[in-house]
Amino acid sequence: MRATKLIAICGATATGKSGLALELAQRLGSVILSADSRQVYRQFDIGTAKPSAAEQQLVPHYLIDICDPTETLTVADYQQQAQTLIAYPPLPQSLASPLLLVGGTGLYVRSIVRGMKIPRVAPQKELRSQLESLRQTYGQTQLYAFLQQVDPSAAQKIHPNDPVRTLRALEVFYVTGRPISQQQGENPPDYPILQIGLDCDSSQEKHRIEQRTQQMIADGLVGEVETLCQKYGSDLPLLDTLGYREMKQYLAGEISLAEAKDLTVLHTRQFAKRQRTWFRAYPQIEWFDAEQPDLLEKVWERVKWFIVEYHKNPDSKTRQSSLIREK
């Protein structure tokens, strides 16, 4: 048995996605599937704004705390686990309700709502090291030329000065023997999906991010970073991500706590801008102002309409932001 409908709640960081999802899930009797690429890691709690124990008591959350900080969870791994939960809902009572997919990691959301075909090739440390050595020796231009020879279709979609995607495309080719361009594409699911996006203006965004950063520090972010550094070493890649990197600099005596806070706010705003650009590229997302006082009720009305229309036509194969109302 599989879930028959899905509601995705996405948008930039600090726009209130988690709070809105918590309210909706309680009304629907549903569960929440996280779409956050850092919340999947155990012990990274405060800096990732992971749902609290109390919140998880109110509504069951899945796809958080599913791997150790020393492990690597690929997008393909995430997609496989999420699709399994959608196909076989974890709680019997959730069968009649939409599942909520909630988070700001655009690639995670897209992997589900668009059914991305992702080559199941884990990062190959030795191969990447060899390719990186070639790049350092002969330059990105030569590495890109290699890609043009083995996968011209992928090369057309990758900028010549993009070493990350160039290396990944070559990695997939050398591991599988097949061009990455032949292993990509989309296979959208056939169940209805409603995509809701939250956004706010820049002044409100800055205020929200400042408040959130201050709250994280008050909740013990510095102590969390210190503990993680002691346990895993300060060179753990996850400790170079947003919020953790800045607090690590503070602990190392390189900057003051006030500077660490300011840098976290700055870098979070830059990250939010990139998230907004990503999500705005998808017309299927229906946007709501995160600052409107009746946000919950407006979204709730949209959700009810989505459910009612689905029950009127349960055999519909509509796939993206299903059953969008006519303007």
Task: Quickly list its features.
Histone, subunit A, alpha/beta, single chain, 6 strands, 327 residues, Rossmann fold, six-stranded parallel sheet
**Portion of residues within helices:** 40-55%
Report the count of strand segments.
6
* CATH level-4 homologous superfamily of the largest domain: P-loop containing nucleotide triphosphate hydrolases
How do the strands of the widest beta sheet line up side by side? 3-2-4-1-5-6
Order of helices and strands: EHEHEHEHHHHHEHHHHEH
- Average pLDDT reading: 90
- What's the tally of helices? 13
Q: Identify the overall geometry.
A: globular
* The first-level CATH class name of the largest domain: Alpha Beta
End-to-end Cα distance: 34 Å
Q: Kindly name the structural category.
A: alpha/beta
What report would you give on this structure?
- This protein has about 325 residues and is of the alpha/beta class.
- It has helices spanning about 15-30, 55-60, 75-85, 105-115, 125-140, 140-150, 150-155, 165-175, 200-220, 220-230, 245-250, 255-280, 295-310; strands spanning about 5-10, 30-35, 60, 100, 195-200, 285-290.
- The chain is built from 13 helices and 6 strands.
- The longest helix has 24 residues, at about 255-280.
- The radius of gyration is 21 Å and the shape is globular.
- The two termini are about 35 Å apart.
- Mean pLDDT is about 90; it is low at about 315-325.
